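To the wet lab folks,

You asked to see what we're planning to order before we commit. Fair enough. Below is the target structure as tokens, and below that is the sequence we designed to fit it. If anything looks off to you, flag it before the synthesis order goes out.
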């Protein structure tokens, strides 16, 4: 043995234990006094050496045996570098704390500790960050969740110096393309996402009017905040993908909420009246346009008819004039007869043509002979 554990008088101190562990009953080097029934460390080492000699060939520890043990230990150490990555994870390999690459799901390898290390990130899990409120367990309500408002986060200033109480939720995940950014570029990713979300929402609300925020502008705010958040996080190289921004509630402060509701109700009445007026206009205007188009078409038809008649009369006059030049007397007589026929054709008349009368006018019952009076007499 390398030191003497002789319990007799052969020791230098009269039979006391001079070994480094002082197992003769005195306190050890750390001030611990072993119990009277505990085994001595030297006895345990002696038994371990005996068992090792039995296991090793030749009964002793030779140079080859030591080399074999070292090689087996190195082999076991290298085998401990295998690790598995889950289907929703990405592994980040590091050598002496320096990032060397990422691994996909399945069985992978990296040098074991203390040279290498692996950090696994769940890149497909969706994370939720609440702004303006927090959900906590209510002990008084059988462990259910209760919403606790955080006005220091939710109260924001609009463009016309009005205050809006905005509560919203941000859904995000780790960027699978750059998970190393998420692991090494930011110290507290969740707090960073929360701070960026609050800052982006305050900027968008600060550019908007309170009326639009409370009514139709909500659908515009969500994608605008998401786009602004992603732009800031990409600038930070945070390795975060913003999937969705959901507005939970947008209300005026509690002190003036009644007045704002009255304003919103009046705005809704105005919108309803405007819609009714627009519906009436949509119904009346097409009818008026149809009537105007009909009048225009009728006038156009009248114009075409008048022009055609005038053209026909002018052409007829030209033809009559040509015949008049050939035979003036006949043409004049014909014109006279046609004119008298046109003028007297629709009147009640009796013509007496008797050249022998020599100015004597015979008496005739003209009223009774006319067709209209004859029918009245029969009735």
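Sequence we intend to order:
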């Amino acid at each position: 043995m390398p030191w003497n554990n002789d319990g007799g008088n052969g020791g230098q101190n009269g039979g006391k234990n001079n070994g480094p562990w002082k197992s003769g009953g005195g306190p050890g080097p750390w001030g611990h006094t072993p119990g009277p029934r505990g085994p001595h460390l030297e006895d345990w080492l002696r038994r371990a050496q005996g068992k090792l000699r039995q296991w090793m060939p030749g009964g002793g520890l030779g140079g080859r045996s030591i080399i074999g043990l070292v090689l087996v230990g190195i082999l076991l150490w290298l085998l401990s570098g295998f690790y598995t990555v889950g289907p929703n994870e990405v592994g980040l390999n590091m050598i002496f704390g320096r990032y060397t690459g990422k691994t996909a799901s399945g069985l992978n390898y990296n040098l074991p500790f203390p040279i290498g290390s692996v950090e696994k990130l769940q890149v497909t899990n969706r994370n939720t960050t609440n702004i303006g409120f927090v959900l906590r367990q209510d002990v008084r309500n059988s462990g259910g969740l209760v919403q606790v408002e955080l006005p220091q986060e939710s109260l924001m200033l609009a463009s016309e110096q009005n205050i809006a109480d905005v509560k919203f939720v941000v859904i995000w995940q780790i960027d699978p393309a750059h998970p190393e950014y998420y692991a090494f570029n930011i110290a507290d990713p969740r707090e960073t996402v929360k701070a960026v979300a609050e800052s982006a929402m305050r900027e968008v609300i600060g550019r908007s009017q309170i009326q639009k925020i409370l009514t139709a502008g909500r659908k515009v705010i969500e994608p605008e905040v998401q786009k602004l958040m992603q732009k800031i996080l990409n600038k930070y190289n945070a390795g975060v993908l913003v999937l969705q921004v959901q507005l939970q509630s947008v209300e005026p402060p509690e002190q003036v909420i009644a007045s704002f509701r009255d304003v919103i109700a009046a705005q809704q009445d105005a919108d309803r009246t405007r819609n009714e007026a627009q519906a009436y206009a949509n119904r009346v205007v097409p009818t008026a346009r149809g009537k105007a188009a009909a009048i225009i078409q009728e006038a156009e038809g009248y114009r075409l008819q008048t022009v055609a008649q005038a053209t026909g009369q002018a052409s007829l006059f030209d033809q009559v004039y040509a015949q008049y030049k050939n035979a003036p007397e006949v043409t004049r007589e014909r014109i006279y007869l046609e004119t008298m026929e046109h003028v007297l054709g629709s009147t009640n008349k009796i013509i007496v043509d008797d050249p022998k009368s020599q100015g004597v006018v015979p008496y005739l019952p003209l009223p009774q002979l006319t067709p209209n009076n004859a029918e009245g007499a029969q009735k």
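Structural context that might help your review: Residues 94 and 117 are 5 Å apart (CA to CA). The radius of gyration is 58 Å.

Thanks,
Computational group
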